[in-house]
Amino acid sequence: VIDSLIENNIEPFVNLYHFDMPYEKQKKGGFESLEVVEGYVDYSRKCFELFADRVKYWFTFNEPIVPVEGGYLYNFHYPNIVDAKRGFQVAYNTILANAKVIKEYKESGYDGKIGIILNLTPSYPRSKNEADVKAAEIADLFFNRSFLDPVTKGYYPEQLVDIIKHHDLLPTFTQDDLEIIKNYTVDLLGVNYYQPRRVKARETLPNPNSPFFPEYYFENYEMPGRKMNPYRGWEIYPKGIYDIMINLKDNYSNIESFISENGMGVENESRFIENGKINDTYRIDFVKSHLIWLNKAIVEGANCRGYHMWTFMDNWSWMNAYKNRYGFVSIDLETMERTIKESGRWFKEVSSSNGFTD
Length: 358
Prior knowledge:
The chain is of the alpha/beta class. The protein has helices at 2-7, 23-26, 34-51, 65-73, 84-107, 130-153, 158-166, 175-183, 239-251, 281-299, 342-353; strands at residues 13-15, 57-62, 113-119, 123-125, 188-192, 197-200, 219-220, 228-229, 234-235, 257-261, 266-267, 273-274, 277-278, 304-307, 324-325, 329-331, 338-340. The protein has 11 helices and 17 strands.
């Protein structure tokens, strides 16, 4: 696959881990286990040995917060455990694994760059009220800065550590671990952006006897009049991509970055077939509106080097099979025929001309 990409003038960006924990390793605790962390480092080392002569862009994890959220907090991913302390241990060990793999890559002297891919969801307060603003800041600590800060700056936000310590949920760690995390940060950052997070101050006191969730400190807020993708239940807010990039520029040393995922999943796109192809003008509008805001950030100095769509062709999701289609290219599941959608033809023109005017 790598050789075929290169033969077709496609630069391979290789991600080492996308929720694919081997079952035998999960039985040992997954990333709760330092033994599994070392196994992941060994696996990464072998990947570098085999492919680093051709692959120059490596990524340690894609959306590493999702296994924490789904597997240890909100109960939508295996191993379906509701235990914040164990979840925070997984999050910490994932950061440690990221740093150890970067250390392996750097000390081996490979000619390339290594980074991580994070799904960043800007947290917007309901109002400028002090309580709402604080709620948004804490949501940002848990869902963005818990990974963004240690992988780029080498340390965790003090406020987040204080909150976790207050609830007696600190993970097990060593000073040697913290030194590795401090000294081996990412070269570049992939950013997945789909939707914003809107929050407000809690209107009720949390149950002191319930399991801990980040929502102990805030509640989600449904902003009136928001534009929605009804098929995913996600808000469409293109300016969020600008806010992420300006935040990276202003608060994260303008780290080299790129949009690694952005897209719109829609059900039953065969409804929109015209002249043998899907006329997905809604996807064109979605991508165009995000590119306009991304360009604005770049013009203002954000160090964003590119935009990757999720996804090139309709793909299988392990949570909803082929229900939501995201691709520039449609797949007929009966015949396996691939057909370029109108959005794919549009994006080819945008890519070829490096822009659009309409």
